[in-house]
Each structure stands twice: as structure tokens, then as C-alpha cells.
Amino acid sequence: MTDLCGKQVSLSAPRRTAAFTFIELVIAIALSIVLLRGMYTIFHAATRLASMCEEKTCVLLEASAAFDYMAGDLARVPASGNRLFKVQDGGQTLIVKALARAGSDPYVYIKYKYESGGGKLTRSVWKDESCSQRADDDGDGSDDSDMVVGRQVKSFDVEYHVAGGIDGTWGAGEADNTKAVKVALEQGSPSWRAGVSDGDKDMERLQSVEFEIILPITSL
């Protein structure tokens, strides 16, 4: 209270309006950045997981199609006494003598070959055992070309049954008779690609699918 010219005047501190200080703003911005980064990380992981599931489904469908082709071709193996099974290139090539679907030749030789460099499994049809003359197996008037029955194949190994049961002896080479063919196939994204981060490699490994299936020879 101050006496000014005979009048009493009351002096008080100016009223402070509500507001954020500079430090408070910096902390709020930093927390917002951390929250947005966490939300982005979760969104990115969910998107990547959805993409991985979709790609894995495609891998399963392609592998199923490859085995369907093999099973169909093995069902065309002629009766005993006129058979041929060849496993070459360390189990990466299978040649089977089968009944022809069309054409003048009664038999064709169906070849499955794994190309490790391109990650492909191809199917081709030939007139001769040495696989030097193409065959017209579908009857359209032209020789059949190579068909890719598997992409992004990381490994392929085939053996034919020699003796015993399922856990018996399986081998490679050449045989004129067998009860079954065993195929091991790994298919998925190629995690050996250059420039792929370790995190993406882990995700790609999850996309890989390994199969081992035994295809019986039914036309005994």
C-alpha cells in the first residue's frame, strides 16, 4: 500500500497468463516424436508380416503345383520290365520314362532339373533317354518347351527307393525299378541376396518352406 498525493494506491504483481514454457514444449515434442516412431515401427512390422504371409501362401501353392506335376508324371510310369529312373547331378536332376500322352512314340522321358543359379525347377519332355530330342507330349503339333514348375527354389534333392521300408535305403544313379521316389524341396525368398539387411534376411528365412515327400510308383 503506497500513499501517492494523499491517495492510497495498491501495487501488486502482474497476473501471469497460463502458457507452456520453452522447456515444456521441447519435452512435449520429444515425447511426440518417440510416440510417432513407435507407431511407425508397429505399422511397418504389421505390413511386413502381412506381406510375408501372402508370399508364403504363394510359395506353398507353387510347391504344391510342382509336386502335382511329379505325381502325375510318376503315375505314367509303364508296367514293370520297361522302366527307367535316373537321378543325376547329386540328386538335382530326375529323369523318368513315362507313357506318352500323344504322338507316334509310345514313351517319353520326363526330366526335372534344378538350376541353382536361377533358383528354378524346370520340367522338360524328350524322345530319347539322353534328352537330346524334344517330344510333343501334349499333342499340339510342336515340341514341348521347358516348363518352370518351381521358382525361388533354394534346394532340391531327389532319391529313389532301393530296399526296405520308408526308413530303408534310398539311392541315386540309375535303376529299372523302384517303389517310390523321395523329393526334398526348399522354396522361398533367397536370403543370400546382396544388400539385404540382417532383419530382412530373418524375415525371408521365415518365408522359406521345406518339404520332404515320398511319391509312390503305383503302376507296378
In brief:
The chain is of the alpha+beta class and about 220 residues long. The chain has helices at about 20-75, 200-205; strands spanning about 1-5, 5-10, 85-90, 95-100, 105-115, 120-125, 145-150, 155-165, 170, 175, 180-185, 210-215.
Tertiary shape: elongated
Radius of gyration: 34 Å
Q: How does the major sheet shape up?
A: 6 strands, antiparallel
Straight-line distance between termini = 119 Å
The number of distinct structural domains comes to 1
Helical residues, percent: 25-40%
> Within the largest sheet, what's the order of strands?
7-6-5-4-3-10
Mean pLDDT, as a whole number? 82
Structural class: alpha+beta
Strand content: 25-35%
Number of strands: 12
Spans of at least 5 consecutive residues with low confidence: 191-196
Name the helix and strand elements from N-terminus to C-terminus, one letter apiece: EEHEEEEEEEEEHE
Number of helices: 2
